[in-house]
Amino acid sequence: MAAPAQPKKIVAPTVSQINAEFVTQLACKYWAPHIKKKSPFDIKVIEDIYEKEIVKSRFAIRKIMLLEFSQYLENYLWMNYSPEVSSKAYLMSICCMVNEKFRENVPAWEIFKKKPDHFPFFFKHILKAALAETDGEFSLHEQTVLLLFLDHCFNSLEVDLIRSQVQQLISLPMWMGLQPARLELELKKTPKLRKFWNLIKKNDEKMDPEAREQAYQERRFLSQLIQKFISVLKSVPLSEPVTMDKVHYCERFIELMIDLEALLPTRRWFNTILDDSHLLVHCYLSNLVRREEDGHLFSQLLDMLKFYTGFEINDQTGNALTENEMTTIHYDRITSLQRAAFAHFPELYDFALSNVAEVDTRESLVKFFGPLSSNTLHQVASYLCLLPTLPKNEDTTFDKEFLLELLVSRHERRISQIQQLNQMPLYPTEKIIWDENIVPTEYYSGEGCLALPKLNLQFLTLHDYLLRNFNLFRLESTYEIRQDIEDSVSRMKPWQSEYGGVVFGGWARMAQPIVAFTVVEVAKPNIGENWPTRVRADVTINLNVRDHIKDEWEGLRKHDVCFLITVRPTKPYGTKFDRRRPFIEQVGLVYVRGCEIQGMLDDKGRVIEDGPEPRPNLRGESRTFRVFLDPNQYQQDMTNTIQNGAEDVYETFNIIMRRKPKENNFKAVLETIRNLMNTDCVVPDWLHDIILGYGDPSSAHYSKMPNQIATLDFNDTFLSIEHLKASFPGHNVKVTVEDPALQIPPFRITFPVRSGKGKKRKDADVEDEDTEEAKTLTVEPHVIPNRGPYPYNQPKRNTIQFTHTQIEAIRAGMQPGLTMVVGPPGTGKTDVAVQIISNIYHNFPEQRTLIVTHSNQALNQLFEKIMALDIDERHLLRLGHGEEELETEKDFSRYGRVNYVLARRIELLEEVKRLQKSLGVPGDASYTCETAGYFFLYQVMSRWEEYISKVKNKGSTLPDVTEVSTFFPFHEYFANAPQPIFKGRSYEEDMEIAEGCFRHIKKIFTQLEEFRASELLRSGLDRSKYLLVKEAKIIAMTCTHAALKRHDLVKLGFKYDNILMEEAAQILEIETFIPLLLQNPQDGFSRLKRWIMIGDHHQLPPVIKNMAFQKYSNMEQSLFTRFVRVGVPTVDLDAQGRARASLCNLYNWRYKNLGNLPHVQLLPEFSTANAGLLYDFQLINVEDFQGVGESEPNPYFYQNLGEAEYVVALFMYMCLLGYPADKISILTTYNGQKHLIRDIINRRCGNNPLIGRPNKVTTVDRFQGQQNDYILLSLVRTRAVGHLRDVRRLVVAMSRARLGLYIFARVSLFQNCFELTPAFSQLTARPLHLHIIPTEPFPTARKNGERPSHEVQIIKNMPQMANFVYNMYMHLIQTTHHYHQTLLQLPPAMVEEGEEVQNQETELETEEEAMTVQADIIPSPTETSCRQETPAFQTDTTPSETGATSTPEAIPALSETTPTVAGAVSAPAEANTPQDATSAPEETK
Q1: Which residue of 701, 1133, 1241, 1246 shows the fewest CB atoms closer than 10 Å?
Q2: 658 pairs with which residues across the strands?
């Protein structure tokens, strides 16, 4: 197996290179945004740049990157574009810039939307250029650029400007490109289309000739493009050298065809054109497919195109076709061929009279049609309207090979897509793992195309939706598996022994050599299948390793996935492994197969089951695991062995590799998706089209739902009637009670519900009334019934004053339909979510709500807030492994809830016993829940009914108030409640108290009735299942748990009515979709009523480690983001309460009307300045340190020593002023920098009590969803902006701080970036050197923005800051030391208690220790952090001497010592394996 060549990484140019470039000089003259006096527009500049910079460098990405980054498109090209100046160079320059924006994943069409006038003219010229002759004005490379531009246009149909141009190319009139007979056949199939066609012809006749000609050209554009492509394809020779330009053109063209076929709006009419051109037949017979090396990617793309051309969908209606319908279509094709053969071709009689199953395979079709002449084959094809009729006495111009393939490929039986999927092995093998076209390396540049599905706006059917996600999820997992295999196997150092075998020179924690491997069971296939139902094998390994690693291997659980690997190294013993060279040839890897653990075997060869019993202690070091192999893969391997004489893969394995459990759930998720595809996915009707991206995007909004609810109880949402009125601006609020004293919450609100189908009213007055009515809300205050006399009976209340947009979100969440809430940072997303859950719980007590989040942390935050509201905790359940982290003594996991129920049952039965005793009833009523039920029925109810009959008003006279208390039967039981129970003020009040007491008693027996099941069910498992299916009303889990456990939940009969998703914009598309289908449909319908998604698509998307899947396949697009792009209505929260208003301005430009809550201006913490710092936010410029800016020891593992030292120095300065260390977090945009800063913190601060450690040192991506008062941010890069160009990352970075944000970066690089301009223009408006006020202690009384009374010091660079902090620390140590010396010299009379002296002596000892070790803990700023330890600044003096000699002379100046190599931290301290350092490109997330 040939090892793939290592792709080269695109090296971004440095700032100095950028400045030296010819392009940059031109930019500074003509279009750079920061230049005030620009030269006038000159078309020659564009011509020169295109010819000299772009064409001459063969479209080098580096040059195009520079141009795009300099804002060439925005500030020069499109701004000055008009038909008069349009030229080839102009068109091509614009296309290059747009393509580069798509490659960089930044918005591309914004500038065209701002100035759309000339776009139609520009687009028509692009179409013309795309059809130009390849040897003419436009070269093939240039036409490939145009194809890519067109592909981007077709994939941007949500942009009105683009859609208006593209629609003309892909609507019904494009059928003009069909041959007449085929057109007639298609119109006959769908009579409705003939009407439209006649209408089109009529309209064409009315057009003037020039416009008609233009329209005809546009309609025939794609047909002509296909013909042009076929001519290019035919020019590729079989064995002579071929230019790569031709190959790339062909690949890009097929990519365009796939994208057109994979979207319903483009496919609807185009699929027939594509079929009529027989493109696939031409491609499969082309020389390019036969060229193994050059045609490999082309062949893979062709298979994808073939898949989509035959996709199981009705092109006109867009409905998915069932297997029966596909079979019928196939039969119709064969029978029409048989009829034609019977009527006109006597030589095909045998074929015509055979049954379909006998003649629809490729072999039999070739047998029947192979002997026919070319002319006969042409006549058969023309009868089927596949080719034009052959004129008499003329020979066909087509090859026989083409004609035969055309008929055979069209009529052969195809395996159904679902069958193909079921036969597909779930584990990747070596063929896929190292195929660069399918699983690209981390160095994906974005230049070429790949054989990968794309997740765009729309999908053909749910099957297509699931299949694309299935394939991408599988390949993303494969990429991670490849990294693990490469890491583990290279650590084991497989070498060839002297005798030709394998010898391992190293060891790996995650892999072991296999001692023995045996297949022990191959079970019979199920009926109708040809693969075994089950294949099991035994793997024996020798665990001669450290105890904790041995425990990890022995701890492998059922369903854990491992990989079996065969290596046959060719390198002799002692050869060094080079990570830069291809992996496969170095280690001699031959096979990789996946397996799933069933369990470890005991001494008797039996599987040790997981369970509560302790595991047996096994002697020796040999361990055998029973594993399940993939039956599909086994069947394929065995077939290959028998038919082709290949070796038996299963006799060759010599390594078994395990993976970290958290990263190893891919197989379970893939099985879940595959199971979904094998069942009827019943998505609610109101969601179906929106999920596929079609129809009216607002159709699932509550205002358009037929079952909208008029009256809702808002419970404790509003704090007062004024709050309610302020929450509905523009509405008339009509309260049902006049008395202001009674207008107190809770409120029921009746909304005017308008059905969409109202009669048209002609009378204007009536219309006005109607509008008035639509704006009127009827508010009814109601009193919550008394729940009992105990303080804990009082309901918990919401205390948050929600804003009117938050109220709209809560209202929408309570109504049926789809609710999307966009929550910018600090706008109270979680509070809104919790209130929605609480309100649904109280309004619809019989309904069950499922809560899904991305992370355990978010789920725990949500749960902690739910517990603070009025929700009975017996109705809460938390599934998954994160419940251990809940900051509460209560356990909400399944078994925690079972224990709660059992304990609560005992408590309640004790209460029953007390009640029984108080009533003087003999017997044991509290023995079980059942006996308690009888006791309630016969003893408690009878007394209550008797009491009611005595005290209820008889006739017109009110009973006496004292009677309510006198006759009350439960006085003794309530003796432990606050007394007196009855106030005696009024009959109504006392009666309500009495009823409240009875409700308290009744609730005890209601709960016991619910708990009866736990008496009948004996095992914990059964009880937990009962809780999940029956008892719990609010069930929470992470999206990963939902994907892993779907099968089990459906099997249990799990049911729910509502879904609320938090962090929805961070959840993968497929992991958002699976929770919709965790239940079986009822009578073919889903019972789902509400879907509430809360997220923020302007913050970071789901984590995708492979850049190709992230960028090319758009796998990082969440369903939430896609819905926003499609136009689904959202509620945008618009008031933040987290950060100072000035800090909010750094990111609020990204949101619609994001303002501040009043407390952000009013609270003292927001109005007070940051002590010791002149500004509340500042961008601090950091130049190269020792001539080095960013460094990259490993791929994407970026570090910047100068910035790291500067950040830590500022952190130490703040701590020395008195800032609490835990209020400061240090963030960075790269993993490499995170590890470097942690190292420096360890060396500079250690465990020093005067400084402490920051709350967190982590990456921006990891810190999403968290916040702190002060954020120090390092942007690391000095050569290229890197992934901070993704504005979403910038928004997260800017929005983490509440009170202070200090950013360290290379200003000259970031200030030129177009996407970052709104934030960086504010940052660069302030000085770029750090301004500090060293004499101002924390906290300060200075107001934010006030000039300080203390002296301001300006820090010019990092060495100055490091020296300053060092001196400041030394000064602090000395003053503290002198202070203690003075204290000790005081006369004894001044010390009141001997203890104080003792305390001070102890403190002094601590200080002396601090003095002794301070030089180690705070090394001189001359040292840099690195792995190779440099001696710390040492001192042999005593503490007192140190105090005397610590003068500035004693501290070496920064320039005196030479630091070790900057960025020498090549891998993180805590990383066990290199993949920890390099697992994710750019931000190793």
Answers
A1: 1246
A2: 562
Q: What DSSP string describes 151-185?
A: HHHHT-TTSHHHHHHHGGGSSGGGGGGS-HHHHHH
Mean pLDDT over each residue of the chain, to the nearest integer: 85
d(CA 1324, CA 1310): 10
- The beta strand positions in 172-308, using DSSP E, are none
pLDDT digits (tens, 9 = 90+) for 1365-1380: 999 999 988 888 887 7
Token pair of 970, please? 């439960």
The two tokens of residue 797 are 């209340």
Q: Which of 257, 191, 264 has its CA nearest to residue 461?
A: 264
CA distance 1332 to 1340: 13
- Other C-beta atoms closer than 10 Å to the C-beta of 383 total 19
Distant-in-sequence, close-in-space partners of 1112: CB < 8 Å, separation ≥ 6: 444, 446, 449, 450, 452, 454
The number of beta carbons lying within 10 Å of the beta carbon of residue 989 is 15
Beta-carbon count within 10 A of 1198 CB? 26
Please state, for a pLDDT cut of 70, what percent of the chain lies above it: 89
Structure tokens at 603: 């001494």
Return d(Cα 635, Cα 641) in angstroms, integer.
10
Residue 1190 Cα to chain centre, angstroms: 29
Of 1331, 1218, 1203, 1329, give the one whose Cα is nearest residue 1272: 1203
- 306-328 mean pLDDT: 89
In this predicted structure, the answer to whether residue 13 has a pLDDT above a threshold of 70 is no
Confidence bin at 1482 (pLDDT 50/70/90): very low
DSSP codes of every residue in 1391-1424:
-S-HHHHHHHHHHHHHHHHHHHHHHHHS--TT--
Name the region of 12 (left: φ>0; alpha: ψ -120 to 50; beta: rest): beta
Q: Is 939 exposed, middle or buried (0-12, 13-18, 19+ CB in 10 A)?
A: middle
- Say whether pLDDT at 83 is over 50: yes
Query: Alpha-carbon dihedral of residues 1189, 1195, 1196, 1197, nearest 10 degrees?
Result: -70
**Rounded distance between C-alpha atoms, residue 1005 and residue 916, angstroms:** 13
Read off the amino acid at residue 159: V
- Tell me how far apart the alpha carbons of residues 921 and 924 are, in angstroms, rounded to a whole number: 9
Name the amino acid, one letter, at 1003: K
Amino acid found at 28: C
* Burial profile 1386-1400: b = 16 or more Cβ within 10 angstroms, e = fewer: eeeeeeeeeeeeeee
* CA-CA-CA-CA torsion sign (344, 347, 352, 356): negative
**What average pLDDT does range 807-819 have in this prediction?**
95
Amino acid at 614: P
3 state DSSP class of 511? strand
Tens of pLDDT, residue by residue over 367-379, are 999 999 999 999 9
What are the two backbone dihedrals, phi and then psi, of residue 864, each rounded to the nearest 5 degrees?
A: -65, -35
Which runs of consecutive H residues, i.e. helices, occur in 816-940? 829-843, 856-866, 894-919, 929-935
pLDDT at 501 over 80: yes
pLDDT band at 838 (very low <50, low <70, confident <90, very high): very high
CA dihedral 1165, 1171, 1175, 1180 (to 10 degrees): -130
Cβ count near 550 (within 10 Å): 14
Rounded to an integer, what distance in angstroms lies between the CA atom of residue 1358 and that of residue 1306?
Answer: 13
- Cα separation, 446 vs 452, in Å, equals 13
Cis bond upstream, residue 1339 (ω within 30): yes
The pLDDT, as a whole number, for residue 18 is 54
The alpha carbon of 171 is separated from its chain's Cα centroid by a whole number of angstroms, namely: 35
Q: Are 1410 and 1373 in contact (CB under 8 A)?
A: yes
Can you state the angle between helices 88-104 and 61-69, rounded to 10 degrees?
Answer: 90
**DSSP symbol at 1452:** P
